[in-house]
Amino acid sequence: MAHLHSETIESSKTPPSQFISSKSHTENLIETLPTREGWATPLVLYNNCWIRANSLKDSMAVKDRLKPRPDDTILAAHPKCGTTWLKALLFTIVNRSRYTFTDHPLLTSRPHQVVPYLALRPGDLDIVETLPSPRLLSTHLPLSLLPSTVSTLGCRIVCVCRDPKDAFISRWHFEKRMNQGMSIGMDEAFTMFCEGCSPYGPFWDRYLEYWKESLARPDEVMFLRYEEIVSDTPKVIRKLASFLRVPFTQEEDSNGVVEQVEDLCGFTSLSNIAANRPSRVQHEHAGDKLVVDPTSLFRKGKVGDWVNHMSKDMGDRMDQLVAEKFKGSGLIF
Ligand code: PAP
């Protein structure tokens, strides 16, 4: 099991004194990039992707420093679209011969602890290089910020997206619960989201990028929507197992293993384990402290909750935007 903890990456050598500069090339570049405030932490636009300023350097390092392996599986989930759920499902499916359901890591650890991220914190990349193959990794980054060898080596990718109305509402509640809180109201946050300015946005570019990759590499890239996982979870669990080349045997099927995976990774089960009960989980990003309560990753887990928070007019505006952005792509909500 991967153990996640923050480490600081130290530069390996001190440069000769005449070359000492107080800022690195990356830091100088970051200063030239557009920045926007409003969400719980400032966002910076890099490579057409709004990334939290405090994780930008680590995100930028992924393209150069990650060494993809042909048997890697990468969960490329747009935030608030089912990352936590899919981390649990994928981990449980691929490790089902290793752990029993009564003594399972997900009964004591959060899904985010068992599947590492690329790359939210300094040190994340060092950790993933030490993992044995086959690795199960996760990212919110666009495909274009991953090494191109992810595609050429044929790494498997599982992407997940969600009706942007629900993804926005989930995002809104999450940001409000972060220690920094929000400096703007829902209307302004909605406007920023529709302008593409939300963590890892524009959402349409992220969805489309992975959607196109799934069309180009159908055997290696599986594209899912949160709504389809909710509507028939056992079907998606079977699909994921076949995709990962570990299909359920007839014996497993008749022993109810698919249903056991579903129950262990379900909202009720995961949100009730001690590791996901209220507490303060602190992440350090470049000296910034982000405090996240794990319960904020388990809010409602419903499809269509947006109607309880957004006006009909906002819903219509988002639907219109979605229709415009995805026109002709074959991707519909
Ligand atoms: P992240 O990107 O910050 O990791 P992510 O896990 O993608 O978040 O999304 C959180 C959403 O998934 C929450 O949706 P909501 O705010 O609309 O409720 C959360 O409730 C939902 N979620 C988390 N775990 C599960 C699960 N096991 N089953 C169904 N939904 C879940």
Automatic annotation (TrEMBL):
**What Pfam families does its record include?**
Sulfotransfer_1
Q: Where is this region: Disordered?
A: 1-22
In the record, the note on similarity to other proteins reads: Belongs to the sulfotransferase 1 family.
> What EC number(s) does the entry state?
2.8.2.-
- Protein name per Swiss-Prot or TrEMBL: Sulfotransferase
Where along the chain is composition biased (Basic and acidic residues)? 1-10
Against Gene3D superfamilies, the record matches this protein to: P-loop containing nucleotide triphosphate hydrolases
**What are the entry keywords?**
Transferase
Q: Where is the composition biased (Polar residues)?
A: 11-22
Q: Which organism is it from?
A: Triticum aestivum
User: Which GO biological process categories is it annotated with?
Assistant: sulfation
Q: Which GO terms describe its cellular component?
A: cytoplasm
What are the GO MF terms of this UniProt record? sulfotransferase activity
Enumerate the spans annotated as Sulfotransferase domain.
Answer: 70-330
